[in-house]
Amino acid sequence: MTFDFSPKSSFLQEAKARGMIFQCTDPQGLDEALLAGPITAYIGFDPTADSLHIGNALSIMMLRLLQKHGHRPIALMGGGTAKIGDPSFRDEARSLISAETIAHNLAGIELSLKQFLNIDGQKVVLANNADWLDRLSYLELLQDVGVQFSVSRMLSFESVKQRLDREQGLTFLEFNYSILQAYDFRELNRRHKAVLQMGGSDQWGNIVSGIDLARRTDNAKLFGLTTPLVTTSSGAKMGKSAKGALWVRAEKLPIFDYWQFWRNTEDADVGRFLKMFTDLPVEECERLGSLEGADINEAKKILATEATAICHGREAADEAAQAAKRIFEQGALQAALPEKQLEKSLFSESGLPAFRLLTEAGLANSGGEARRLIRGGGARLNDQAIEDENLIITKDYFQDNVLKLSSGKKKHILIRLI
Question: Which residues does the record give as ATP binding sites (predicted)?
């Protein structure tokens, strides 16, 4: 059911106030459980890459919020389910990954989680479903769990129906994913007394399956809660960027780029993102989000710094904010750099290759010269070296429609969009 409930427990009250709840299986029952004492809840993270990304940020913030209100969070890494791949709302099956790749990715996911959560202090349980799924025999699973699942019910899940309607059908391998995730919920209830599973709205069917399984086999009362799909005001999915995936690990994405992503938030999204992705009080988030004109840009800087501090630490966040200030305020404006105006249409979704931008800016006389400049390490964009001559420059690289481009140590120019 949709969450239009007025909770009494502090966790649900704050999660609702921050816009972090989409659906809940039993709001009244969950609220009562939270009021009765600390509960244990979990969210799963499949190791499809060796880092989490901004698209995972809301799930991580839910675990942080749960811990803040005195409850026990579990971060479940899908070392077992990764061998199948979650088919939920995907156009086609995920490519199967090797055991070696899964192990490598698990290490990266653990490092990602440690950036946000106090795992080493044992305040967060870090689990891996391979610990129990790898030991299962097929016949054991069929006898214990298979008899509890209705195929007609599974076919009614929206995520399944969408795949069945497409050219790329749903394989039997993928069809088992929901069963294994349900098994995870029951296993975590047995091992750690987890009574709540949280996840994105696309996980609703899988969560309900786990609740039903535990009720049928263990007579356990479990709950499910989902977060909304986060999109920008213009309709783009959260975390999608022309630069590629917005990873949380600094080895995968420079901290400055992480800060800059949040700084480039659309005006209409500032208040909402402050509530979801920072620890600032809700009232302050709403005040900042209501600012207009030039003031909203200051709110964006606060969003960028606070969100980056949660992921990379306060010192790194402040350094990124100062770097942006040097580039766009002190370095650019005070030095009165020459300016080149270019049409915004050049930087649409298809963007402009870096070597072409250098020629458009007059920092190179030809494409060949621009490519050699980049290969020699002499070209910089916003004071960061351009390493790929074919890097696609889009509007994401601009701040307040301005970008700084450099050739060597002495030639600099501002590119301004018109």
Answer: 240
